[in-house]
Specification:
Elements: E1 3-9, E2 23-28, E3 31-37, H1 41-47, E4 55-59, H2 65-68, H3 71-81, E5 87-91, H4 95-105, E6 114-118, E7 126-129, E8 133-139, E9 147-153, E10 159-160, H5 162-168, H6 172-179, E11 184-185, E12 191-192, E13 198-199, E14 206-210, H7 217-222, E15 228-232, H8 240-246, H9 251-261, E16 265-269, H10 278-286, E17 292-294, E18 300-302
Parallel strand pairs: 3-4, 4-5, 5-6, 14-15, 15-16, 16-17
Antiparallel strand pairs: 1-2, 1-18, 2-3, 7-8, 8-9, 9-14, 10-13, 11-12
Helix pairs in contact: 9-10
């Protein structure tokens, strides 16, 4: 049931000696999803022990270089590694033109197909789903069309309560029906409500990635109740005017977004190169939202399940 986020890059546009441009790897049940792809992302994946061949899909928030320049060499390397299955890439337009040019000039004979899916950055839309996970777009407010991404676990399958099974002498067929969510009719004619027998083992988990953006009440509302929120905090609180002008957020903006969303924890990142101490920025955010940490590169942040307690 692993659900975690590994930080591959935490810097903004200007290169620094200690930080890489934006990139993250979301691990959900051992399937990896790359979120943004700044320069050097393939080296960072290897340093963090993540096999690039395990990437299930790529999500690009916007087409500024510090979020996308690392994707194209990664596409080439995946071909060298022998990938054969298509790679879905979710990104705003005109990413398709960029991909087409890259394939024409550098990778015309890849052994797999990169498949672009357009992200409409003004819509909150379902982009990807499988049996256990959904990924939604979250409209953001930046200088170019930009979307964040909301990873939501689907409700886990029902479990049958062992004590209830013994108490009512349930058959295998009845247990199976309870796990499907059905009420049960006992031999006595008594109707047994489903919640007397079955329960969710844990609440569905969620992770929100919000970068780059001015603070957005709409984005926070769309991420209500997330267990973990990543929000850019390019600038310290004193630089609020500069942040607004450049389509970015401050530490206080990020904290207010987490408060509005009712997030469990907050990670801040996309730090301007002017700041050497990310912990000092996190301390600013903690004055409004105590459960704040700076996004540290190569660190993995786990989203633990909140176990449901059966009421007897």
């Amino acid at each position: 049931m692993n659900f975690s986020v590994t930080i591959l890059g935490s810097a903004s546009a200007k290169p620094t000696a200690s930080r890489h441009p934006s990139a993250q790897a979301v691990n959900f049940r051992e399937q990896y999803y790359l979120v943004d792809a700044g320069e050097g992302v393939q080296q960072q994946l290897v340093r963090c022990g993540i096999n690039p061949l395990k990437l299930r899909a790529v999500f690009i928030s916007h087409l500024h270089g510090d979020h996308v320049y690392g994707l194209f060499p990664l596409l080439s390397t995946l071909g060298l590694y022998g990938r054969r299955t298509p790679l879905p890439i979710y990104a705003p337009a005109p990413f398709g033109e960029m991909l087409e040019a890259h394939l024409r000039f550098f990778d015309s004979d890849l052994p797999y197909e990169p498949v672009w899916h357009e992200v409409r950055t003004t819509e909150h839309a379902l982009l990807f789903e499988n049996r256990t996970l959904e990924v939604w777009s979250v409209p953001l407010r930046h200088r170019v069309p930009t979307a964040g991404f909301l990873f939501r676990e689907k409700a886990p399958a029902l479990n049958a309560d062992k004590e209830a099974i013994a108490r009512y002498g349930l058959t295998i067929a009845q247990i199976t029906a309870a796990k499907r969510g059905e009420d049960l009719v006992l031999d006595t004619g008594e109707v047994l409500p489903n919640d007397a027998v079955a329960y969710r083992p844990h609440a569905p988990r969620a992770y929100a990635y919000l970068s780059d953006t001015n603070r957005s009440a709409k984005a926070a509302a769309l991420c209500a109740g997330v267990d973990l929120m990543y929000h850019e905090a390019t600038y310290a609180a004193a630089e609020s005017r500069l942040a607004r002008e450049r389509g970015h957020s401050t530490t206080h903006d990020a904290a207010k977004a987490a408060l509005a969303a009712g997030a469990g924890r907050l990670l801040i990142g996309h730090f301007s190169s002017r700041y050497k101490d990310a912990e000092a920025l996190a301390a600013e955010a903690r004055t409004l939202f105590p459960a704040t940490d700076p996004a540290c590169e190569s660190e993995t942040y786990r989203i633990e399940p909140r176990m449901n307690v059966r009421k007897r």
